[in-house]
Amino acid sequence: MASTSAPLLSVVVGEEELLADRAVAEIVAAARAQEPDVDVHDLMPAQVTSGKLAEATSPSLFGERRVVVLRSAQDLTKDLATEVTNLLQNPADDVLLVLVHAGGNKGKALLDAAVKAGAHRFNCAKPTKANERLQFIKGEFSRAGRQITGDAAQALLDAVGNDLRDLAAACTQLVSDTDGRVDAAAVARYHSGKAEATGFAVADRAVEGQLPEALEQLRWCLAIGTAPVLINSALAGAVRGLAVVAQPERGAADADLAKRAKIPPWKMKTLRQQARGWSPQAVTHAMGVVAETDALIKGAGRDPAYALERAVIEIANARNQR
């Protein structure tokens, strides 16, 4: 919030519970900054009755301020929604009313009435795009007065997944346990449990031609016990993606290319960036390298670690040949 003054009427709109909880917490904190002993009523629809609502929102005889939070307002019964609508038209000066609404058409009349009454709106939509989740991660570090590199943010997203609560917890851990700017190596240290994610980090650095970084990631993966077959599988997937993007069929849609590359559509932008500088001959050579490495780590060779290191060097060098 821009100021420490809490609005008399607020609507918190969206399906992302973490963001909604934070918005409510900001409103309550602003109210307590003005009046530390403010009384807070945080109610779910099952707890709301006509009598309870009247008790919580009636003017106080002693002038004490109250914050009344109505969660899941879209699930209020028709009669209760009508009572709340009446409150919006005749608000009490000592009551800060907060409606938390999931958005959508259910209970939309109540939300529209609150907006019409001049409610301060907090948008808490669930992020649907990878870039939005990456911005959330960067924002978490910014809130803590820290920074995270772009590749580290992507590695964290790959390792933890899309749930914002999980991502927020992971960001808090990294802020607490590290110093300075957080890089991909720090993320790998704390999120090594996802073998496929660390394998992808090796593959990404290799196809981008970042040999020192790819070797560092590889050695870390092997040190923490990531199965060599998983690492080579990630390499194979990255090279297969290059083959799809490097010579796409004329008129092919991104969704079709993503399906062939076996990646979610939102990763097409990253894949196209990785494919820059790759010639068809280099892609063909890389495909041969991963096929040979697959045989070596499954019994044809004596040292899977050496086979993987050789594969990473061959792939990164193929990308760097002009």
Would you give an account of this structure?
- The chain is an alpha/beta fold.
- The protein has three domains: 9-123, P-loop containing nucleotide triphosphate hydrolases (Rossmann fold), CATH 3.40.50.300; 128-191, Helicase, Ruva Protein, domain 3 (Orthogonal Bundle); 195-322, Zinc Finger, Delta Prime, domain 3 (Up-down Bundle), CATH 1.20.272.10.
- The protein contains 15 helices and five strands.
- It has helices at residues 17-34, 50-57, 78-89, 108-116, 130-143, 150-160, 164-177, 184-190, 195-207, 211-223, 228-246, 254-261, 268-275, 280-300, 304-320; strands spanning 9-13, 39-43, 66-70, 95-101, 120-123.
- Strands 2-3-4-1-5 form a five-stranded parallel beta sheet, sandwiched between helices.
- α5 packs parallel to α7, α9 packs across α11 (228-246) and α11 (228-246) packs across α13.
- It is elongated, with a radius of gyration of 27 Å.
- The relative contact order is 0.08.
Could you give the distance between the termini? Answer: 52 Å
How many structural domains does the protein architecture include? 3
Structural class: alpha/beta
Taking all Cα atoms into account, the compactness measure Rg is 27 Å
What is the number of beta strands? 5
EC number: 2.7.7.7
Domain DNA polymerase III delta subunit-like C-terminal: 198-314
GO molecular function: DNA binding; DNA-directed DNA polymerase activity
Catalytic activity: DNA(n) + a 2'-deoxyribonucleoside 5'-triphosphate = DNA(n+1) + diphosphate
